[in-house]
From TrEMBL:
Protein name (Swiss-Prot/TrEMBL): Phosphoribosylaminoimidazole-succinocarboxamide synthase
Domain SAICAR synthetase/ADE2 N-terminal: 4-244
Catalyses which reaction(s): 5-amino-1-(5-phospho-D-ribosyl)imidazole-4-carboxylate + L-aspartate + ATP = (2S)-2-[5-amino-1-(5-phospho-beta-D-ribosyl)imidazole-4-carboxamido]succinate + ADP + phosphate + 2 H(+)
Designated gene of the protein: purC
The organism of origin for this protein: Actinomadura keratinilytica
EC number: 6.3.2.6
Pathway in which the depicted protein is active: Purine metabolism; IMP biosynthesis via de novo pathway; 5-amino-1-(5-phospho-D-ribosyl)imidazole-4-carboxamide from 5-amino-1-(5-phospho-D-ribosyl)imidazole-4-carboxylate: step 1/2
Keyword Nucleotide-binding included in the entry's annotation: yes
Length: 277
């Protein structure tokens, strides 16, 4: 099979008209892949994405063809999927203020051009979920863009439809997670277009790499939250004297273990299934 793309986390192979998306155990912070893998991360992301794709299928079709019909060596962390033309936008929904969204709000009072009320603090719940797209940069960091920028890029019909879909996926995910004691603060989706023009949910969905997960019973606005996601690695990396350019630092064993435990905890709490590897 031909390797057509090696992303920060996934390797993408072409197999005829299909793609095989193979999730590795790599972890990236601030767009730098760290040299230390997190064991089982690729499998957890893959299994959790498959679980969500199924539960979102009435909102939007997804790219999954099969998780079984993949080469043995990758089974468990690979998905055979439809090869799409990806839209050059990261489709982000936020129900709470954190990360770059918080930074942007503190600078301008808006995120992606969406005006927010004054007085919000870190981890504040927003009056309603908002759509805050960014560029999908091939290199370097993604930047906030406005809804009008998205319209200019891909047309009003597609932009409006996928903005609504992004918010609907977020609301469905957040509601389900809330029943299981988890706040989904924000999430990033990716969509592509099939050859017949259909819009399709792609990549990964509502995973701890693409979303912020907080235990609901510990949520307190005004401070950093206990994170069951990649934020834990970012927080550890910011205690170091590292300028966020490659090469990234080796992750110590206890941080590897604690990160893996968080990914497993999120998987188990959301799906209600034990992680058996
Ligand atoms: P980059 O590709 O910029 O390194 P990344 O590190 O997030 O970003 P990965 O998630 O590691 O990338 O790799 C997955 C790649 O495959 C992404 O570029 C994603 O947009 C792309 N992709 C996901 N699903 C599909 C699909 N069904 N068809 C085509 N491309 C897809
Ligand atoms: Mg990705």
């Amino acid at each position: 099979m031909e390797l057509i793309h090696s992303g920060k986390v996934r390797d993408v192979y072409a197999d005829g008209d299909d793609l095989i998306l193979v999730a590795s155990d790599r972890v990236s912070v601030y767009d730098v892949v760290l040299p230390t893998p997190i064991p089982d991360k690729g499998k957890i992301l893959t299994r959790l994405s498959l679980w969500w794709f199924e539960r979102l299928a009435d909102i939007i079709p997804n790219h999954v063809i099969s998780a079984d019909d993949v080469p043995d060596e990758w089974r468990g962390r690979a998905i055979r999927c439809r090869r799409l033309t990806m839209l050059p936008v990261e489709w982000i929904a936020r129900g709470y203020l954190a990360g770059l969204g918080l930074k942007e709000y503190e600078k301008s009072g808006t995120v992606s051009g969406v005006a927010l009320p004054p007085g919000l603090v870190e981890a504040s719940r927003l009056p309603e979920p908002i759509f805050t797209p960014t560029t999908k940069a091939a290199e370097g960091h993604d930047e906030f863009i406005t809804f009008d920028d998205v319209v200019a890029e891909i047309g009003a019909d597609t932009a409006e439809r996928l903005r609504e879909t992004t918010l609907e996926v977020y609301r469905r995910g957040a509601e389900l997670a809330a029943e299981r004691g988890i706040v989904i603060a924000d999430t990033k989706l990716e969509f592509g277009r099939a050859p017949d023009g259909t819009l399709v949910l792609a990549d990964e969905v509502l995973t701890p790499d693409s979303s912020r997960f907080w235990p609901a019973d510990e949520w307190r606005p005004g401070r950093a939250q206990h994170s069951l996601d990649k934020q834990f690695v970012r927080d550890w990396s910011s205690t170091l004297d590292w300028d966020r350019t490659p090469p990234g630092p080796e992750i110590p064993q206890e941080v590897v273990d604690a990160t893996r435990a968080r990914y497993i905890e999120v998987y188990e709490r959301l799906t209600g299934e034990r992680w058996t590897g």
